[in-house]
Structure formats: structure tokens, C-alpha cells
Amino acid sequence: MISDLLMEKRPGDKGAWTPDPDEKMDIPGSLPFIGVHVVALVGVFFVGFSWAAMGICVAMYVLRMFAITAGYHRYFSHMSYKTSRWFQFVLAWVATSSTQMGPLWWVSHHRYHHMYSDTEEDVHSPIMRTVYWAHCGWILCKKYMQTINRLVRDLGRYPELVWLNKWHVVPGVVLAFTMLGVGKLAEAYAPGLGTNGAQMLIWGFFVSTVFLYHGTFTINSFCHLMGTRRYNTADSSRNSLFLALITLGEGWHNNHHRYPASERQGFFWYEIDITHYILVVLSWFGLVWGLKGPSEEVLAEAKFFDELKSSLNPGDRAAIGINEPPAKAKAQL
Ligand SMILES: [Zn+2]
Ligand SMILES: [Zn+2]
Asked: Which of 25, 135, 195, 264 has the fewest beta carbons under 10 Å from its own?
């Protein structure tokens, strides 16, 4: 069972990262990623600002972040709820338009992260490697451009997902042209909005894509560094309200590493998890169903650790892996 595999923890030895000569930036392969940043940064000075373009920029960020968190992550990677074949394709298409590679690639590397979190094997651990490498260095490296097929055999059964994985550039290009078209239509039929094709293309596609890159990547980099630790997991994952807000709920990463089978990542009402709220609404319309929550045991454990934490001084918390990752705790013992 893939869910059993994802629950498995391999503590591993934390130590210094031995750089692999193959782990370097692939300059030609990185040009599209760099290009999107340059076009966004330079473009805004040429096309100017309008509230309509800004509104679309935010909408495209939220829509695609939801598709990544609810689709790529909670559904495809962890199968934490169920949906129909057509809606899974919609989620995959929208997530792929964020230009973070295709569904099989994304899921295979994410499952690998859960199998080897913060060990030498983990490709994007900011503990074992550098923050830059965990954030975006690894995705600009040729060595990790391939899908790890053995980890996504379940998704390989769907030809439409395999096609999307191969032609992952298509949804992004379609979105860019859609933004251009929307801007041109607005210019022709709603001139009062003060926007045009070029402005909508820059804000709706390029600027929102840049924010989407870095919003998503914070989970791999900063969510293993900043925030608090409720569970003493073998990795260094943390819970952060700030990161949960910008990623629509993914910031409860320590909860998630403790119990990846749960669709809900904010385990209590005060842990804001916007993706979960949207999925609940979608479940009322029958678009998704079978949303899995944390087990009773995991919730009881949370209460135990929360109470324990409030009764301990910082040094003792670190010693048992609460609030400080195990590596640091080890050093302090
Ligand atoms: Zn993680
Ligand atoms: Zn995950």
C-alpha cells in the first residue's frame, strides 16, 4: 500500500552533505525559470499597474496554489481523499499550469521526500544541504529532471496524466495566451478597467507564477526551518501560521509529516487550512469525497505534546525533539 509506504519513517544519520559533482545548476535548462523572473520583474515597469490586473494576478495565484496543494499534494501524492477521473484531470491541468513540471514528476519527488525526509537521501533538505538548494537549487539541476517512475505506478495507469507529465509546458502556455486574450477583451469591451493584453499577461501569468514558485518552494525550504514543532518526528518539519497562510494550509508541515494520510493539515480549528475549507465546500457539491482526517491517536498525541510543551523549559523541549529538530536536540544532549 502506497499509504503505508508514505507513513514509513527512516530516521537516518544527520551529518554534513557531501556535494555530488552532478548536483549543479543546469544553465540552459534553467533559462525558462530565470526567464519568467526576468520578464515579470522588467515587464511590470513597461505595462504599468491596474487593479484589474492585480486582481487577476491574485486570483491566478490562489487558483493554482489550490490546485498544487489539493491536487498535486493532498490528492495525487497522498491519496487523502477521492474524486472523479475528470475532476482529477482538472486539478492536474491547473496545477501543471503553474509550470512546476508535470503531475508524475512532482508526486514522485514529493513521495521520495517523505521516504527520506532530512536524511542524506532527501534531495531538498535545508538541514542536510543549503537553504538555496532546498528552495530551488535542486529543481534547476539536470540530475532531478526525470520522474521516479517506480514511485508513481498508480498514476501511470491514467494516459491523460502521463500525457500531461510529458507535455507539462502546454497548460502554462495556454494560460499565458488566455491572459493575453482576457486583457485584449477587457481593453476592447471594458476600457474603464484600464488594462490591456500585455498588462494582463505580465501580471496574470508571469508575476503570479513567480510568487507561486516561491510560495510553493517555502514548504521544502523554510517549513523545515522556521515555526514550531508539535510532534517529535524524525525529520525537522515545522508548523508555521505564516507559511500556512501563503500556501493555503501547507504550513502545518510538522502535522503533515506526522500523519501524511490526512487531507486536513491544520489539525485544530485555530490552524488555518484554506485548502481544507475549499475541499469541504467542493465535497458538498459531490466533486470530492472521502476526505480523511487525522486519527484519534494522532490527535491525542498532539494534545499530549502541547501540554508537555507548556510544562517544559526550552532546553528540555529541545532535548526531546519538540520545537527543535532532532539533530539540534542531539547536539545539546
Ligand atoms: Zn517536508
Ligand atoms: Zn506530503
From this structure: 25
